[in-house]
Amino acid sequence: MRGCKIKQGVVTPVACPVAKESPVWRYTRHFPMDHSWLGNHILKQYQADLSAGSLLLPESRIVVGLLLHGVEGAAWDHALRVDNVLQKSSPATAVRQARLIRLRLESIDSSVWSVIRDGDKETATQLLFAAALRHSELLKDFLREVVVDHVRRFEGTLSVKAWEPFLHDCASRDPAVATWSDSTRKKLLQVIVRILAEARYLESTISLRLLQPHLNPAVRKALMEAGEGQLVPMMELHA
Prior knowledge:
Strands 1-2 form a two-stranded antiparallel ribbon. Helices cover 52% and strands 4% of the residues. It is built from 11 helices and 2 strands. The longest helix is centred in the last third of the chain and has 17 residues. Helix 2 crosses helix 4, helix 4 packs across helix 6 and helix 6 packs across helix 7. It has 2 domains: 53 residues; 120 residues, fold of a uncharacterized protein from magnetospirillum magneticum. The chain is mainly α.
């Protein structure tokens, strides 16, 4: 009984439990291995931590300030829990939101942090949206699959009925999604809708009217210079 090894996608004999003259061997010997059939079912890992908050612009500016000043460890914890720099009703809420904000910020190049802290509202909000897309596969896929699909079909408003089918597709890529509770699923939808309204993809969380995205030139420039240019077509609903 002979074996096999894979080199540049082609199986060659070495040592495996598949007999050389078996149907499997005859097929793999002549045809390179191709994973394109997986299509949209490539496994992913979706996180539900998005439910901790929307873009949180005021809080994000404060967190950026802490990061730029090198606040870490005990000093970080003291700022959140004791000084209550985020002005939250409980230390637990402050810690949870600060963690989400930090994960978003650290998922994008730090060269844009000062713009988020000091830039005007539109510029800072759009860069926070870019960071949120970088951090959250759920938000990114919702924008690319649901919002873009609505735009392509010339739908004037976002249909919340698309949420459950979208989650069903997500569960095919990450089975853990199917275990999310109804309350988590509802909260995630609420937060995503709020994010899209804050980033001006929706007129409001009430009307759900879709708006034509306008990417601030300063945001485009900052993303390109930061090596985050792949986010530009996505934010313009071209991907």
